[in-house]
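Person: I keep going back and forth on a fold encoding question. Show me how you would write down a chain together with its backbone fold. Please set it down just below, with no commentary around it:
Helper:
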Amino acid sequence: MTTPTDTSRISSEIRQATFTVRRRGLDEQEVGDYLSQLAMAVQRLEEDNARLRADLRTKEEEKHSEPISAQAVIMFAEAQKVADSLIDEAVTHARDLMMSARAQQRDIVRDAHDAATEAVRKVEPLAQTTEGTRYDHPIPEIEYVRTFAKVAQIQLRSVLDALTEQVDALGEMPKLETTQKRLEPPVGP
C-alpha cells in the first residue's frame, strides 16, 4: 500500500493508492469508491487552498502596506473549518472501518473455531474405533483451519495498520492558524 507524503499531491496519491488483495478482506469496490470520494474532497480543498493563496498574493501585491481585509480572514477561517470537518469525517470513517475489520476478525475466528469443532466431531468416531492405537499425525482439516486462522489474523492486523497510517496521514494536514496569525493586522495605538 502507498501512503501520501506530500500535501500538495495528496489527492493524486490517494487515487494511485494500492492495497494488497487478501481473502475475506474489505470489499475492493467499497474501498475504491471511498478513496475516490476522499481524493475528490482533498482535491477540492487543494484547489480552494491554491485559489485562496493566489487571491492572497494578488491582494498583497495590490495593497502591500495595507492590512488584510476582514473578508480574507473570514475566508481563511471558513477554509479551516471545512478542512477540520473533512478530517473529522475521515477519522470517523476510518474508526468505523477498524470496527468493521475487528468484527470480521471475530467472525473469522468464530468460523475457524466452528470448523475445528466440526473436524473434531468427525474424527471422534474414528478415534473410538481405534482405541488401542494412537493417532499422532495432524489432521489435515484442523491444520487447514489453524493456518487459515493465522492468515486471517495477519490480514486483519495489516488492515488495521494501514487504516492507522491513513488516519495519521490525515491528521498531519497543515493548519491555517499560523497563516491567519501572520495575516492579522498588528494591534496598536
